[in-house]
Amino acid sequence: MVQLVKDLGADVLIDYKAQDFENLLKDYDLVLNSQDNKTLQKSINILKPEGQIVSISGPPTPDFAKEIGLPWYLRLIMSLLSFSIRSKAKKRNVKYRFLFMKASGNQLSEITKLIEAGVIKPVVDRVYDFEKANDALTYVESGRAKGKVVIKVR
């Protein structure tokens, strides 16, 4: 696994089972978070002042609610949900942003170009036929996947 990650271009390798990234990394401009709240909280500590954390799994913000046109009471709820992380970010002089993933044909086209140019290197561990979807899920849940697990529909 270490060699795979190096081959993908990683500058720093951290064994999350034995090391805590919060104690090893510092002064980053940007963190992209897709993990749990504990990881989100720790990620703020590795940013330099004026840095930014973008999360697809953290609590949505009032700005996000406004952006998608939610009514005032839902903006208030999102404000309460994200209060803690926004406060911590503000104290550390960094920005927190919630990103909602949505399908976009234009973005997918651009991603395809990047993959074809070799800029993005997707790693596919295993491919399962649709009939074996349960086996695919079992494999993913085992924690042994070294890349994406694909379910082939056709």
Automatic annotation (TrEMBL):
Matches recorded under Pfam families: ADH_zinc_N_2
Signal peptide feature range: none
Gene3D superfamilies reported for this sequence: Medium-chain alcohol dehydrogenases, catalytic domain (3.90.180.10), NAD(P)-binding Rossmann-like Domain (3.40.50.720)
UniProt name for this protein: Zinc-binding dehydrogenase
Organism: Pedobacter rhizosphaerae
